[in-house]
Design a protein that fits this description.
The protein is of the alpha/beta class. The protein is built from 9 helices and 8 strands. Helices cover about 40% and strands about 15% of the residues. The protein starts with a strand and ends in a 5-residue tail after the last helix.
Length: about 260
């Protein structure tokens, strides 16, 4: 019934009880999960997990906060090999992050330039392999969208954990890109995000947990897990005045069209 399009099953926060986490997700009606990687090591960990979990697929990529883990060109070749695994459905999580401080040894300008180079290399790889991309934005919207727009005829991106306005998103939606909502839409102070979720056309958005982060009401403040995507769907359904079954079905169709390798 529900499709959690972004859940960090490779997080250390799940190392102690991942089987129980997956059991609770399935009991809550979550039938599919996409687990995005943060670096190459995390990608390998997730692929090993997904080989034994029929309802889990993996996105492989270097998160912008982890680009200090790569340099030169060899990492691109390794990522290309990982991306051809049958359980890989996208490239991600990739993007720009201007919120967190630069990694040790980088100036601010060098850090942002390195993030941009790594992002561009991964979008080139995604276009080559005909995969879509999961995009991270943190206080970098203008720079991120400027880098993504030229790829619009070669791939599609989902701007995960979207927190902006429909006006911001509209030019990207018109080019075939998507936005995705987390449990933030359920918060009392959701504000503009709730309004965007209310107004965005069906087929233009997906739902996610970003577990273990951003647990929706009624579990706000706890460790998030994929079962809670059902609560996010219920919050969006209430905002849109639609049955939760309609939100679940619509976002699942959208995700099945976006990610490779699902039935």
């Amino acid at each position: 019934m529900f499709f959690d399009t972004h859940t960090h099953l490779g997080s250390k926060q799940f190392d102690g009880d991942l089987p129980a986490v997956l059991t609770r997700a399935r009991a809550a009606g979550v039938t599919r999960m996409v687990a995005p990687a943060t670096d190459l090591e995390n990608a390998r960990k997730l692929l090993a997990l997904a080989e034994n979990e029929p309802d889990v697929r993996v996105a492989v990529g270097i998160h912008p906060c982890d680009v200090d883990s790569v340099n030169g060109d060899a990492w691109v070749h390794e990522l290309r090999e990982l991306a051809q695994h049958p359980k890989v459905c996208a490239i991600g999580e990739i993007g720009l992050d201007y919120f967190h401080a630069p990694a040790e040894g980088f100036t601010l300008d060098d850090w942002r330039a390195h993030q941009a180079r790594v992002l561009t290399a991964q979008m080139e790889l995604a276009a080559e392999l005909k995969l879509n991309v999961i995009l991270h934005n943190r206080e970098s919207w203008e720079d991120l969208t400027a880098l993504v727009r030229p790829y619009s005829d070669r791939l599609r991106g989902v701007f995960h954990c979207f927190t902006g306005t429909l006006e911001q998103a509209q030019p990207l939606l018109e080019r075939g890109h998507l936005i995705s909502f987390t449990g933030i839409v359920s918060f009392k102070n959701a504000g503009v995000i709730a309004e965007t979720a209310r107004l965005v056309p069906a087929g233009s958005y997906m739902i996610e947990t970003d577990a273990p982060y951003l647990a929706p009401v009624p579990n706000r403040g706890k460790r998030c897990e994929p079962a809670y995507v059902a609560d996010t769907a219920r919050a969006i359904a209430a905002l849109r005045g639609e049955p939760v079954e309609q939100v679940a079905a619509s976002t699942t169709r959208t995700a099945l069209d976006f990610f490779r390798g699902w039935d």
